Structures are given as structure tokens and as C-alpha cells.
Queue: 4 jobs
Job 1
Amino acid sequence: MRASLLLVVAACGSVSSKDRTDAAAMPDAPGATVDGYRSGSRLKLSWWTYDDGTRTYAGLHDTMLGTDCEPGQVAGATVCMPDAMQGYYFADAACTQPVGDWYICNNQTPGYIYTSAVTGGACPSSIAHVYQRGAQLQATTVYYLNGTACQQTTLSTMDAVYALGAEVAVGSLAPMAMAEGSGTSGFSVTYATSPDGAQLPMSLHDNSDGYDCDPESAAEGATTGTCIPEVTTAYAGYFASSTCTTALAEYPSACAAPMNAIVPAQCPGTFAQYYALGAPQAISTYYTESGTTCVAETAPAGTAWYALGTQLSVGSLARAPDTAAGHRMQLIHYSAGATSFRDARVFDTGEGTEVEVYQNSDGSHVALPASYNGFVQSNYFYGDAACTSQIDVVEIQHGAASCAEPPLPMYVVKYGTTPNGCNDALEVHTVGPAITVYLEIGANCVAQTPGSYEYHALGAAVAISSFESPTISVDP
């Protein structure tokens, strides 16, 4: 069975990396199927369209409710879940009156608010209720559940708070179902389908191990990928021994045990490793790696610890861009045998880089370089030993000392601040040379020694206009 459905609300600037891609050319006939994508009579596919005709999946649109939606679960039912903000906070000190919270720099304010089955805990929780968005409240003081305690907090002026409107009956949401792949080996595609005829490729299904998984690549231009299991996972970045050799996984003790454990990737361009969950461990001390030192830590209350079982054989996939004649924007495929699945990213042959769709501060969209390993840090590091002049720095993950020198990205995307205070003015830059940077720690200005990260100057700006700007449309 499929372990979970993910509801993704895109943050300011970037379209979710879970977006999937369709074929370069779509047929004119309504209801036709191309690469597993098909609109229904109620649920319509929307597309990003580039000047060369290349089209990529942009989402589903529920024509009956007049809102965009994505496959998800509400009160145990699989539906096309409307775009919604979370009702995480409460208006009252007893934590009985949920309110929606929306960061005003995000994309268009959703018309719905959802609440979870469990609030205030660390355990995964499904959506229990969906409400229409009510009136905006003039409130900055709200409350939240910390376990069973209702605690007060103050939101920033960039948060908008909304009351709950009328509850939306689950039966009024577009029903969907998951059609998982079949076979005894290799991969097949898992689709989300609806009674009105819509169909959407969601993930791959590993027929050998019996779970759904998401194809992922680890580096720009990667020719291979892996399929990440869609199961609950414990983090296994800790150790049971003082030599930091016996790995441990941890998970909140109040939650049901997860299905497996993940050992994080040690080097950029490599993948995490997955293990079956082993036997519970009763420990009072665990260990972490700090450089070449193994450091003892006191095990906190409320944490369950597990040994690692057998390593899972996560499947390998081939990955390559298309070579469609006359197209600047080439779709990227994962493949295994006869099974093919399209990557979220597109290869821009004009700039020689993989791209994804971002929203700029003026509401326009542009396909800018996808970030694998290289992020701009602003207003954080200094360029002088007195810590008087802050500079923009490109932070590159190096990983463990034994890792090979990571390749520098061709471009990085910087978020600039617009007059309304939002960090959504997009800039593209090259990456400059390695530099020494300084960080203010207490009263001291401390040089940052390259280790797990290395630091580079922000290079020359590249005109946004040199990248492609797709338009969005919805199937008729």
C-alpha cells in the first residue's frame, strides 16, 4: 500500500520540486492521455508552456470548486485537496479556536484552511478538516499546543491570521484513488486517478520491495538517480559507541515506530542510505561526530532509540534530458527498463543548466537554475576580521573531510528584499573564488575555517531576461 500522500504548499519564490513534467507537445483532443497525464471532466491539468512549445505539469484545477488542488488525504479519504493554509495556531488561551496563518510573501492567499487530526505533538498527522477561509483577524498574539500545554506566541507583521469559515464536507471534494504499479521486479508507475477521468503520475513503485518511491538526483547533470522510499523514517545520524561506529536511529517515543531509518549522505552528490528498523535500544548516552571527534551527549526524554537492521536495496535509475529538435527547453527522464518517469526539472540548453520555475516579485514566473549545492547567505557573514562589513557569500557543502572536492554550481539564485519586506526579488549570479569569511560570535569576530562547508564570493550578476519565462494555462 502507498504509505502517504504529500500535501505541498509552495513557499515564496519556488514551485515545489514535487512537480512532474509532461511531454513536449500535447494533443489537441480533450481527454487524451500523454505520458500518463490526462484531464478529466472536473479535474483539469494546468501547464507551464515555454516559447518553444515545451510544456510541463503545473498542477490540477478543480473546476467545480474553482481552486487548484493536489492529491491528498482528508479524514482518511483520498481527494484532490484544495490549496490551503494550515490551522496550526489558536485564537484563544485554551487552544480551542483554530485560526489560519499565512506568510504574506507567499503566493496568492489560499481560499481554504485545514486542521490536523493531532496538534501539538511531534508525530506525523493527517488532515482532519477543511474549512473555507474566513475573515482576516487583526491579531498578532496567538496560541499553540506544545504537547498538551497551550502556550502563547507573537507572530511577525508579515503573518496574516484568518478565522475559520464554513467547514467543507469531504464529499464535496473531488474524489481520487491511487492506482499502484504491478509486477514482481523493477519499477512501475503509481497514478492518482479520479472518477471523472483525470490521471496523474505520482511516483514510481518498487515492485521488488513493494513500496512507492520518489525519483531523485543528487547533482547537476546527474546521469543516474535513486528512488527514495515513501515511508516514515527515523533519523540515523547518531551513534551508540564512543568510537562513533555503531549507528543509532532516533524517533519521538510517543509516536508509532517508523518503517525504516535513514543514514544521511556523507558527501555532496551522493545519496542517503536506508535501513530496516532494528531492535529498540535503552540508552542514556549517545554520540555524535564533530569533525574527527566523537562527542558524548545525554539522551533527552521522550526519544526512542533503535538499532539499524538490514540495509535496503534502493533502486537505481538512469537519468537523461531529451533531445527534441528545435527545443531550447528539454525535458528530463528517469528510466528503468521500459518504465519512464519525468523529472520536475527541465534542462535549459541555452544556459546549459537545469532549471525550475520561480515566481518573481512582480508576480511573473521564470525558469531559473535549480539549486543542488550552493546557497547564497546574506546578512550573516562578514568579509573583514573586525566584523564591520557584511557580504553576500555562496555557501558550498563539502561534507566529511574524506569527501572529494565538490563541483561548483554554474549559477546560484539570490533572493533580494523588495520594498514590502519580502525576499522575493530574484537575482542570478555566477560563483566567485573561495574566500575567508568571518562570523560574529559574542564579542569576538571569528574566521570560519572550511570544513563541512566552504565559502565563495558571489560572482557577477546574470540578466534574468536571459532565462525563459513560461506562461500557465489550464486544459479546457
Job 2
Amino acid sequence: MDSIVTVARWTARVVGTVMAAMLSVCIVIPVLFGGGDHFDPLGQLLRGKLLFATMLTTVIGLVIAPKWERIGGLLILGGLAFLVVVTGDFPPGMIFWPTLAAGLIYLACGWRRATG
């Protein structure tokens, strides 16, 4: 059973690292630093700010989950759940589902570690 947990943990780490890199490069870094001449973070619509908050929460969860699996897993799942609430639908594409899987695996591994 421990080998299954180890494989799951490393799968979550690899997938989570790839997803954190993709989200950071595609969403977080451009919004923070590369908004262009017309970028005005205070002038963005509330929905845009909420979407950015969901992505930032998810990326933070992906970054800390290898060290603190349960907290990271909760941040990942919380960020994605809030994303679904803000958008009103499950986002299409290759970013949502692998990130969701990594969050669930981190949470399961953290729970397994806590229960022995």
C-alpha cells in the first residue's frame, strides 16, 4: 500500500509542478507584471479580480503542496471550486482537470499520512 501512496504522491508532484508552471506563465505573471500600457489592476472589473484570486490561490496551493499536502490540497481545491463559482461552469481545457487531480491526490496522501 505504501508503494501506491508513493507513486500517487510523485504523480501529484510532477503534474502539480507542470500545472503551477503553466498557470504562472500563462496567467499569474502576465497579470502581475506584463499587463501592457493600459494595465490598471485597481480598475479591473470585480470578476477579473476574482478570477485572478482563484488562479493565485491555486498556484500557491500547487507550490506548497509538496511540503504541506493537506493545506496545499485544500488551497488547490478551494481555488478551483471558487473558479467554478465565479465562472458558473467547469473550465474547458487541459489546465483544470490535471490540477483538480493533483489537488485530490495531495489531499488523499496528506490524509493517509495523518491517519498512519
Job 3
Amino acid sequence: MGAEENILKLLNSSPEGLSTSEIAAGTGHTRATAAKYLEMMKIRGMADARNVGKAKLWVSASKKKKILIAEDEPHIRRLITVILGRENHDLVEAANGEQALEMVSEHMPDLVILDLMMPKIDGIEVCRQLKRNALTKKIPVIMLTAKGEMTDKVVGITAGADDYMTKPFDPAELRTRVKTFLERHDSERNPVTNLPSRSYVLKKLASLGGNPDIYRVVLENIGVYRSSYGHGKANELIRLTSQIITHNLDGSTDSFAGHDSENNFIVVAGKSSASILKQISEEFASSVPFFYNIDYESVNLKKNIVTMMSSKGETKEIPLVRLAVSRTDRKSI
């Protein structure tokens, strides 16, 4: 049995908690070695620490998924708590951006629900810091915005948010989004979009049976965009695409999406596939011009080109990033 397994066994036998010194004595490690193991176990969600007076006691981590609710409005925090339920999740709260960063460091949650506008440090900066940190960059972040304007969505995406919801939000939709991200946290995910990988999609399709409608949604010309704007901006555009796809699915059990490769998405759209894919294509077409640092008039959606200025001061036309949707099947995924 390894060192971490021994520590976990010891913690499980003492639900009231143990100090680092007691764990060291019980496992035969030095206090410093035990402390290092405990910190790593905390990062991976295997152990947790709580302060009792001046003492720090370690306990076995809860099996419930931990969610941080970072929102400065107390009534909204209470509402989210009621919607998600403490009996279903381990919920922690923060009233401002500074507290949010502290709580993430202390608790290492499985998911962060983050308000865009908060005192001390706003949600944008909190998200940026989380996504720059190697220990926290894979924690999914759902950004709460007060408006439904595309500019707010773009701001959240550029900060690295994995998804967004507009206030006021539908309780059922919030529960669905949270459930989806927590399930993805347990499976193989695409590092850019947090969407399930090809292997997850194949397993999901196998569980459905029958002949569901399967579509391949491809981001064309993303390579040209990357050459002009860089990898970071290209990833933001890819994240936007994933969010547009998932937001337009009808929420049924036979409707889901995956991210097969950089510019290739797999969509199982259920019974409303035609209208869903039409909505995805239309929303993408109206959103993508926001990712070009030019006037809207420079974008020609009919010809699918954008007019830009070269480094030599000459105008040039490049193909606009667009979605190509095609029907596919299990064997071709």
C-alpha cells in the first residue's frame, strides 16, 4: 500500500480529523513528508483541512463535488445554494473576487460559479488568474453575466471562462450546466473547451443504442485566423464555438456534444436536429465578427471574407472562419 493510501486509510478511520503530527506518527513519515503528501492529496481532492481553534486538522475529502459560488449579492448566492442543494454538493461561498481566489486556493473546488461584476477583484481578473495557474487552470468556470449581449460573452471567453449564464437564469438550466461540467470533470476532456472527448462520445452513443442523428461540425479556416491573431485568440474562438453548440442543444438525454480534435466537433442533436443546427449556424455567423479587430463593415458574410490591412499597409482579403455541418455516423467518428 502506497503512502497516500495509508494516509487516506488513517483519515477514514478518524472522521473527526487528525493533525499533521498525528498522521506522521501513524504512517511512519516525518512531519514534513506527511505535510507534502497531504497538500498533494488536497489538490487532487483526496483530503481536506479545517481549522479548529489554532489547530489544523486533516479529514478525508467529501465524496460530494465541491462548488465555489463567487457572487457579491447575498440573495443570489442563497438562490444558487437552494437550486443546487447542499445535500447534493459541497458548496462554499465568496462575496468578492479576493475571497474567491482565497477559497479556490483553500478548497480546490471541482467547479466555480463566478459573477462577472464583483468588488475588490472582478470576475474577469479572477478567471484570468485561475486559468494562468497550473494548479487551477482545469477547474471549469461558469461566468454569470447580468446582460445577454455578445460583448459580455466575448469578455468572459477571453478571460478563459468555460461557459456563461445570463442573470436571471433558469434553475433547471443551471442544474443541467453544473451536472454536465461535473461529469466532464470525471471524464477525458478537451483542454481548450472542456467538452468530452471522442472516446466519451462513443461510450455515450453505445449507451443510447438505435440510430441517433450524428453531425460533424467543423471550424473552417481556423488556421488562417491563428496566423493572423495567434494561438490564444484562436482558442477563444474555439471556446465560443463550443459554448454556442452546447447552449443550443435541447437538454434531452439523447442530445449532447463532444470535441474530437481542434476544429472538429461531434453533435448528437436528438429529435430537433434540424432546428438546433440551424440555430447553431446562425448564432455563430452573428458572433464570429466580434473576434476580428476590425469594423463590422469589413466583414462580408455572403462572400465569407474579411478585409484586413497587411503589415505593409495594403488591404487584403482572407477567408472568414465559418462552420461546416455534415451528417456522419458512428463508424466515421
Job 4
Amino acid sequence: MPTSVTYTHSFPFQFDPATGRPYPGMEVIVHGPRGSDRIVGHVDTGADLCYFSGERAGALGLDLLSGRAVTATTATGLQARVYLHRVELEFLGRRVQVEVAFSAGPIHREVLGRQGFLDQIQLGVRERYETLLLELEFSRTS
């Protein structure tokens, strides 16, 4: 049986000045206990968590090193120490409480992963047209 999917939000890919190439990404707002920050993250269906630079922690009112320390492994097998903190992510008019990973050192890209982002939406990617299509999960009719 055919399936029909409707999306109410469409976003052009972001441009990565480091690579000179577009990528599927979008802006979210991260709210901490004493501040907020806008982040343009790479949408990554292989990432379990949202992963942000630890340099942002202070502006959000977080003590980076007080978070739960864990070792994250990238798709290429590299390991990095990260600190998990509970924050709010805001996107598409929704705010959700989520545990995100903040890096201990510099990172190449910030990531919007499965927990807290992808589990809240229905995602479509039109690579040929460099477009992300999104729909909030609670607004689905099927």
C-alpha cells in the first residue's frame, strides 16, 4: 500500500565554509539555566545524541565539567570525552527537554542527533535539491 507523507516545513541546506559544500543542517535554540544560544547543527541520523561545542556551556549557565562524563565514539571510530547536560532545544515552535553532549575540546561540527531532535520530527531529505523537509511528530495524522 502506498504511503503519503506531508511536510509543512522546508529548509535549504546550510553552507559549510570549511568544506565549501552544502549540508543538511538547521538552526535550533539551546536554552540553559541562565542563557540561550543559536546553533546551526548538522542533521545526523547516525548520531545518538545532539552534540555541541563545550565552549557554549558557560553562555548557557552550565558548568561544563559538572555534567556526566562519558566517552563518545564517532562514526569513524574516534573517541572523545563529552559531558552530558539537560537543556531545552527549541525548533519548529517546540521546546523539548533533552540531554545533550558538550565536547571537552574543539569540534569540527555540531550535530542534531536522534535523541531530542530526530525523535521529535518526521524527516525528509531531497539531496538533489539540497532541501530538508520536516514535520513535527505530534502533528502527524497517520
